[in-house]
Specification:
Distance between the termini: 36 Å
Helix content: 25-40%
Shape: elongated
Largest sheet: 7 strands, antiparallel
Radius of gyration: 25 Å
Strand content: 25-35%
Structural class: alpha+beta
Length: 384
């Protein structure tokens, strides 16, 4: 789950970490009030969306008066902002962050993330702040510094000092305090990513998080109630929001073949086979092990909400649920939804022959596949 920049900065402040003075606003009048309350000669107006690259897309503006803040906010709010990270659809700007400007001496990059291979939290830092870290990693890998945190000891002082020396930061004690505070924040809030880009050194020698991105581990949201309540569904695909409410694991993609599978691994394999045979999946959808008729019906409705879908592949392994019950549920769901596009079904498991017979005798536009490869070929053929 992603947090907005303003939400991330409020969390930084709770841990005593420095951020620019500012406040979020959801209309031009409120933004004007925020600007008037800030003692600054200039202001930064930042569109609040869950995507990077806002500055290049016109979502970050520096203005010199409170009146100019109001006009910029009017132009941004309600706009669909498209960046390199959220193209081609973009995301709606419903809020803006208005902040003071600061005098910058240096810009640095700093992040913490979970390295799945090492099974550790890793600190990544670079003297090339304010730039895309992927570009730096590709063109100047020597500028990427890392420190791996021990699960028991956490981030220790000598690691922070080591990074400070390599980054040529004079404020070693302040940087050490900052890094240890970030690590505490990261662990206590079950983050999967914490990125500050840039972390600035001001002309008077202070370290300030000028921008911040945070992602919370979805699997830990049950114990992060306050953070979970801050989720902004307007920044996510509407179908994904509906699926979340229905208890389904759904991720929208850009293809035209809808996928309904029970099991995440099987869903990934299904999408791979569709691609192998020349098709493009429209979604990832895991209905879970106990796929009831009601759940299948909800899944069909979510898939069909995508107007790009021209055929659906249902791949169910009847382990917990018998294949004949699954087949009956699919038929009931197809009838309820009023399906008009082809549906290819691959069943395997308990009572598989009976399940296939039920599908064949349904009289509906349902194609019963012999195996997964046959199913992939059939569904790709159906959209050709």
């Amino acid at each position: 789950m992603n947090l907005h920049e303003y939400q991330a900065k409020l969390l930084l402040k709770q841990y005593g970490l420095a951020t620019p003075i500012g406040k979020v606003a959801d209309d031009a009048h409120s933004a004007l009030g925020v600007a008037k309350s800030i003692n600054s000669n200039a202001f930064v107006v930042k569109a609040q969306i869950h995507a990077g690259g806002r500055g290049k897309a016109g979502g970050v503006k520096i203005v010199k008066s409170a009146a100019e803040v109001e006009s910029v906010v009017k132009a941004l709010l309600g706009k669909n902002l498209i960046t390199y990270q959220n193209a081609p659809d973009g995301q709606m700007v419903n809020q803006v962050l208005v902040e003071e400007t600061l005098s910058i001496a240096r810009e640095l990059y700093l992040s913490m993330l979970v390295d799945r291979t090492l099974e550790r939290v890793v600190v990544v830092a670079s003297s090339a702040g304010g730039m895309d870290i992927e570009e730096i990693a590709a063109t100047q890998p020597d500028k990427i510094l890392q420190e791996v945190c021990d699960p028991l000891n956490g981030l220790v002082d000598f690691q922070a000092r080591n990074l400070a020396f390599k980054l040529k930061i004079e404020q070693v004690a302040e940087f050490t305090k900052l890094l240890k505070g970030l690590y505490k924040l990261f662990k206590e809030n079950d983050l999967s990513l914490l990125e500050i880009n840039p972390l600035i050194v001001t002309t008077d020698g202070k370290l300030v998080a000028l921008d911040c991105k945070m992602s919370v581990d979805d699997n830990a949201l049950y114990r992060q109630k306050e953070l979970s309540a801050q989720r902004d569904w307007s920044q996510e695909d509407a179908k994904e929001a509906i699926a979340h409410e229905a208890g389904l694991n759904y991720i929208a993609l850009n293809g035209n073949i809808g996928c309904m599978v029970n099991g995440a691994g099987l869903a990934m394999a299904t999408m791979d086979l569709i691609k192998l045979h020349g098709g493009v999946p429209a979604n990832f959808l895991d209905v879970g092990g106990g796929a009831s008729a009601e759940m299948i019906s909800k899944a069909f409705k979510i898939i069909l909400a995508d107007d790009k879908v021209r055929a659906i592949l249902v791949n169910i392994f009847g382990g917990i649920m018998r294949c004949d019950i699954v087949a009956t549920g699919i038929i009931a769901a197809v009838k309820e939804v009023g399906m008009t596009i082809p549906v290819v079904v691959r069943l395997e498991g308990t009572n598989v022959d009976l399940g296939k017979q039920i599908l064949r005798e349904s009289g509906l536009n349902i194609i019963s596949a012999e195996n997964l490869t046959d199913a992939a070929k059939q569904v790709v053929k159906a959209v050709a």
